Amino acid sequence: MGLDVDSLLVPFLGALQASVAVLLTIFSGMLARQFSLISEESSKDVSRMCVKLFLPALLIVNVGSELHLETGFRYLAILIWGITTTLVSLAFASVTTRVFKLPSWATLAMTFNNTTSLPLLLVSSLATTNLLDGLDKVGGATSRANSYFLVNSMVSNSLTFAIGPRMLNGFDEDGPYDNCKADDIDEQIDAEAREAEEENEETSLLPSRVVSGGTRAQYSVYKKGVHLLHRLPPWAQTTLDFLYQFVNPPVIGAVLGATIGLVPALHRLFFNSQEDGGYFNAWLTSALKNVGGLFAALQVVLTGVKLSQSLVRMKNGEQGGTLPPWTFALITVFRFFIWPAVSIPIIYLLAKKTALLGDDPILWFTMMMMPTGPSALILTALADVSGAEEEQKFTIAKFLTATYAISPIIFLTVVGSLKAAEAAAGV
Question: How many domains does the chain have?
Answer without folding.
Answer: 2
